[in-house]
Amino acid sequence: MITFNDLGQISPIFLTVLLIAYLIIVELGHAKIKKTLLPFVIVLIGLFLIIAIIDIISKF
Amino acid sequence: MRKYLLVLLSLSIFLSEIILRINEIAGFFIYSFLISGCLLSLSRAESLNNHAKLIIVFMILPIIRIAELFVVFEFFWKVLIIYLILFFLVSFYSIRFKINPGWTKKKLWLLPLVIVFSAILGYVGNVFFNFEGYPELLLLIPLIAYADEVLFRGLIQNYAKKSYGAVSSILFTALLYGIFSMSYGFPAVLFIFLMALTISLIYNFTRNIFLTIAMNMVFHVFLFLSHIL
């Protein structure tokens, strides 16, 4: 198993920055490779949505 | 540069894991740099060759670690979410790259042998390294074993073998798996590395992913739960 049981403390702001940086860098390079990298963007966006929804639910 | 890629990737993951253990924010940044480095190296690739595919499947590892940093649920739910992400990524890439990780009946007669071997090794690991038991993880072990094996053996080992040969691919895959188990402490890392090395060797000679999934499942059951069973 490759997961830690004591990780999970970082602010979602970092994820936003990473997502933007990632989207910019993904735009470089060969078209076929760009298409292949799409699942990573989906994972990061999905993660961002989960965090955002949990944050909204816990605040209101 | 390309010649030393496997060494470079192993070292960068090793360094990132150590820094992550010391400080989460620093670990996050170093993993982000690693992803950026991979993306920049891919941006120079002219086609989706085996080398580019190896870097893409390798990138799953830092993505998983980064995802883990943001998931603040209980351990069971966290493992479930992380492994569902891993399941999605490995399934996508094995279909996208049209690679058969080894779904074959070939050499399936080795199954009882590898099960007994993994059970003994898992039990020994449990006795010597006192792994914490999480009985609820029993439900997730099929998912964990499937995702781990398709990623490390089916994708990383296969693409490393195509570019760098069998010996380098076996060592690289086992090293990555060992380094990624650093949360259990250094002596345990060595033990898990030896187990991963055995699994990689068996996969290299049989090309049968059923055998390695069975080994991974039995090993994890005995490693985490043999004192409960």
How would you sum up this structure in a few lines?
Chain A is mainly α and 60 residues long.
Give an overview of the whole structure.
The complex is a heterodimer of chains A (60) and B (229). Chain A has one domain (12-59). Helix content of chain A is 72%, strand content 0%. Chain A has 3 helices and no strands. Chain B has one domain (2-225). Chain B has helices spanning 5-22, 24-43, 50-58, 60-70, 75-96, 111-129, 141-164, 166-179, 186-206, 209-225. The N and C termini of chain B lie far apart (49 Å). Classes of the chains: A mainly alpha (60), B mainly alpha (229).
Question: What does the secondary structure layout of this molecule look like, with pairings?
Answer:
The complex is a heterodimer of chains A (60) and B (229).
Chain A: H1 12-26, H2 31-36, H3 38-59
Helix pairs in contact in A: 1-3
Chain B: H1 5-22, H2 24-43, H3 50-58, H4 60-70, H5 75-96, H6 111-129, H7 141-164, H8 166-179, H9 186-206, H10 209-225
Helix pairs in contact in B: 1-2, 1-8, 2-4, 3-7, 4-5, 5-7, 6-9, 6-10, 7-8, 7-10, 8-9, 9-10
Main attributes of the structure:
heterodimer, A: 60 residues, mainly alpha, 3 helices, extended, B: 229 residues, 76% helix, 0% strand
Multimerization status:
heterodimer
The percent range for strand residues of chain A is: under 5%
Total helical segments of chain B: 10
Show the largest interface.
A-B, 33 and 50 residues
Structural class of chain B: mainly alpha
Order of helices and strands of chain B: HHHHHHHHHH
Measured as a percent range, the helix fraction of chain B is over 70%
Integer-rounded radius of gyration of chain B: 17 Å
Q: Tell me the total number of β-strands of chain B.
A: 0
Mean pLDDT of chain B: 89
Apparent shape of chain A: extended
Q: What do the pLDDT scores of chain A average to?
A: 80
User: Which structural class is indicated by helix and strand composition of chain A?
Assistant: mainly alpha
Main beta-sheet annotation of chain A: none
Poorly predicted runs of chain A: none
Helix share bin of chain A? over 70%
Low-confidence runs of chain B: none
